[in-house]
């Protein structure tokens, strides 16, 4: 069964110090999530080119606690694929 995205993260604007939460939902066999971040200067990026993988951010939700000014102007994207299935 192929991965199907059922909901995408919504754009948000947060004040410095606030908490932000993004959620990406997918169906399929063992969906694997990886969140990526790019600065606002990455405008016009295609796919995840130019984004950096966020270490440890591999679940359907991304939480940013104590948002900084740089994070507030950043872009976040979630890539979803199927995890390896043991045989």
How would you sum up this structure, described in words?
The chain has 87 residues and is mainly beta. It has a single domain (4-78), classed as Sandwich (Immunoglobulin-like). It is 5% helix and 40% strand. The protein has a 3-stranded antiparallel beta sheet with strand order 5-4-7, with no helix packed on it. A two-stranded antiparallel ribbon has the order 1-3. The relative contact order is 0.35.
Shape: elongated
CATH topology: Immunoglobulin-like
What is the CA–CA distance across the termini? Answer: 16 Å
| CATH homologous superfamily descriptor | Immunoglobulins
For this structure, the quaternary state is single chain
Proper CATH architecture: Sandwich
In the sheet with the most strands, the strands line up as: 5-4-7
Which features characterize this protein?
mainly beta, 87 residues, three-stranded antiparallel beta sheet, 40% strand, Immunoglobulin-like, two-stranded antiparallel ribbon, 7 strands
Lay out the secondary structure:
Layout: E1 4-7, E2 19-23, E3 25-27, E4 31-38, E5 52-53, E6 61-65, H1 69-72, E7 75-82
Antiparallel strand pairs: 1-3, 2-6, 4-5, 4-7
In short:
By secondary structure, the chain is mainly β. It has one domain (4-78): Immunoglobulins (Immunoglobulin-like). Helices cover 5% and strands 40% of the residues.
